[in-house]
Amino acid sequence: MFPEDSASDASKGERFPLLVIVGPTAVGKTALSLYLAERLGGEVVSADSRLFYRGMDIGTAKPTLDERARVPHHLIDIADPDETVGLAQFKELAHGTIAGIHARGRLSLLVG
Hints:
By secondary structure, the chain is α/β, with parallel strands linked by helices. It is built from three helices and four strands; from the N terminus they run E-H-E-H-E-H-E.
């Protein structure tokens, strides 16, 4: 169902370094996350539930395709609007994604 599903060690409680950027819509989180990811060798993991859904481009401040090309972004456009992504599903997807980023020797930036 979701392209970023992965077998993670979430059930084992494995932890990874994580930089978290939070705030309301349109305050500069994307610009800051791009700046930091480019300098720190990171990848962005979206924690914004509205960005999970394909087609939710208006009013969400979704990173542009150019911004997403500069730095890898994850958990954006992963579900159709008629699908539900619950908290447990997000936790599993996010942990698997963060584990994969860590395995590549990069830093995860959780942004939302």
